[in-house]
Design goal:
This protein is an alpha/beta fold and about 290 residues long. It is built from ten helices and nine strands. The strands form two sheets. The chain has a seven-stranded mixed beta sheet with strand order 3-2-1-4-5-9-8, with helices on both faces. A two-stranded antiparallel ribbon has the order 6-7. Strand 4, helix 6 and strand 5 form a beta-alpha-beta unit. It starts with a helix and ends with a strand.
């Protein structure tokens, strides 16, 4: 197999899944997703940047629902001790073929295992960091999956969790305006009226930040829970402070500039209602 033929396989597999499940056939979207997943040398979703900014020592990492292994391969290429689990066979096949095509170490093919998030094939307290990125909405049982992620996490370790928040007016897989947590029967009628398949509804859980935080708080583990946006605000304040010329600091305070930035972001978000998803974006630390 050549890099070109592997990329064609990836593109066709993404196209087939998106069309069959959600009726999405936007060529520009398909090209972007294919590029993102194929180019594992680039940290396209920014997760490694956040992780490395937050942790002085990263340690052993698990990616739940690793997809085509883009995050795992990027970590391995940069000497990270990272593993993944993935239930879909075509994605596992792509991962193995990518290792072969790029002439990467054969042993890396063992770094992504076929498994589901509700039953992780690892012992308790095994990983320093667990991450799940835009995948939790697809598991069969969100609560069981979250408890499994916490089970395999070491005391002092972190769970970096990102997923759609369905307290919004947009469904990102169908790329359509949706009522928040729309009743599935009503959603099916809505989709049929638009000529869209309803198959995708079977594999979607209406995840929300409130529900996830509720699961975390009732998990039985001692945890601290923080929105990642709070960490990004701290980073932005530091960046503004470093960039703001000394002579202007008496006129424009860092706090004032950051507040203006926050207001701008919120106003911009209002213009995207019904056109962009909301996200759960949490950093959870498991205490000893």
């Amino acid at each position: 197999m050549t890099p070109a033929s592997l990329r064609d396989f990836l593109s066709e597999s993404i196209r087939r899944d998106a069309l069959d499940s959600f009726g999405v056939a936007d060529p520009q979207w398909l090209e972007q997703v294919t590029n993102n997943w194929f180019d594992d040398r680039r940290n396209y979703d920014g997760r490694w940047r956040v992780i490395e900014a937050r942790l002085s020592t990263v340690g052993k990492v698990l990616d739940m629902a690793a997809g085509c292994g883009t995050f795992v391969l990027n970590g391995l290429r940069n000497h990270r001790d990272v593993y993944g689990i993935e239930p879909e066979e075509w994605k596992l096949r792509y991962f193995r073929d990518k290792i072969d095509v790029d002439r990467l170490p054969d042993m890396w093919s063992e770094r992504v295992l076929r498994a589901e998030g509700e039953s992780l094939p690892f012992p308790d307290s095994h990983f320093d960091l667990v991450t799940t990125y835009q995948t939790l909405e697809h598991v069969k049982d969100v609560r069981v999956c979250v408890l499994e992620l916490l089970r395999v996490l070491k005391a002092g370790g972190a769970l970096y969790l990102r997923a759609p928040d369905y307290n919004s007016f947009f469904e990102p897989h169908y790329q359509l305006p949706f009522l928040p947590r729309m009743n599935k029967a009503l959603a099916a009628k809505y989709l049929r009226a638009l000529g869209r398949p309803t198959r995708g509804l079977e594999n979607l859980q209406w995840t929300t930040e409130k529900d996830i935080v509720g699961i975390l708080k009732s998990s039985g583990f001692r945890l601290t829970i923080e929105r990642s946006s709070a960490f990004r605000r701290r980073l932005r304040k530091a960046e503004i402070s470093a960039l703001l010329p000394r002579m202007l600091r008496n006129v424009f305070t860092v706090a004032a500039l950051n507040a203006a930035w926050e207001i701008g972001l919120r106003l911009y978000a209002l213009t995207l209602i019904g056109r962009r998803e909301n996200n759960i974006d949490l950093w959870i630390t498991k205490l000893g």
